[in-house]
Design brief:
Strand order of the largest sheet: 1-2
Oligomer: single chain
Number of helices: 13
Radius of gyration: 21 Å
Distance between the termini: 23 Å
Strand content: under 5%
Largest sheet: 2 strands, antiparallel
Structural class: mainly alpha
Length: 278
């Protein structure tokens, strides 16, 4: 496995665009810390994000993983380009000539996906600890290390999303078309959901239940938005008469759904490469 992974990392590092995108991703990820310095003055009302408790333990695990997941598209481009370059530069055919099996080839890509997701998760973990101990009002160990399931959910979400990108790269062969296909898939999921939910079935909750099994929707649902958990937002909702109860926890069923999609994407990637004339 180390040999397969080292081959893939050399390919990525020697590609200037992939190298810049990967480094940019982690640099931009660290910019989450800048949120602490953002202040808004609205008349006599001052809004300071750090004082709102977004970096309090254990809320910070939810907040940071949700924000960091939004930035995953930087690495998605790297994953798609990684696959597209295999066809453009003929390295896939050369790897097979050198003795690598098609199964090992797909495994090497999947190991890279896992490494990217794991590295990002560790990065978010360390950054959250630093920010939390810098701004949190609660630093007891029992509180600090509670809600760590958000890190697991974040890791699974990235693995699932990157596996989808890998599959699209294998299917389409061109990075620009693969990214375009990803965007189209996203629009199809959202448009069909809105149409079924609000037009055809008149807000039937069963539509939500069905769409929890869709690829991108299942990955989105694994970590729900954290903003309405903030006391300031809850106070604002109460002031306008909105007291909705929302479930913010990470559900094991959501993780299983994403893992099943991950297995499907990797299996289909292998099947396509196995049958395709390279």
């Amino acid at each position: 496995m180390y040999r397969l992974l080292s081959i893939e990392l050399q390919k990525i590092w020697k590609n200037r665009a992939s190298r810049i995108l990967t480094l940019s991703y982690f640099v931009i990820l660290s910019f989450i810390a800048l949120i602490a310095s953002i202040k808004f003055n609205i008349g006599s009302f001052e809004l300071h994000f750090a004082q709102m408790g977004i970096f309090n333990f254990p809320f910070i695990w939810h907040f940071n993983t949700y924000i960091a997941a939004i930035l995953k598209f930087f690495l998605a481009i790297v994953i798609v380009s990684m696959m597209a370059n295999e066809y453009s530069y003929g390295t896939l055919k050369q790897n097979l000539i050198d003795g690598m099996s098609k199964k090992e080839f797909v495994l090497s890509k999947f190991l890279t996906v896992i490494l990217f997701a794991l590295t990002s998760t560790v990065f978010v973990f360390i950054m959250s600890l630093i920010l939390g101990y810098s701004f949190s009002s609660y630093i007891e160990l029992g509180i600090v290390f509670s809600d760590l399931e958000y890190l697991l959910a974040y890791f699974v979400k990235l693995v699932g999303f990157f596996s989808f990108c890998l599959f699209l790269g294998v299917l389409v062969k061109r990075s620009a078309f693969a990214i375009g296909f990803l965007f189209v898939w996203f629009l199809v999921e959202k448009i069909t959901y809105l149409t079924l939910k609000f037009d055809i079935f008149n807000r039937d909750p069963r539509v939500d239940q069905v769409y929890t099994f869709m690829p991108l929707e299942s990955m989105s649902n694994i970590i729900v938005e954290p903003f309405t958990r903030l006391s300031a937002i809850k106070s604002l909702q109460s002031a306008v008469g909105e007291n909705s109860i929302k479930d913010y926890s990470v559900h094991f069923s959501s993780i299983i759904i994403v893992l099943v999609w991950t297995a499907i994407f990797i299996f289909l990637s292998y099947k396509i490469i196995k049958k395709r004339d390279l």
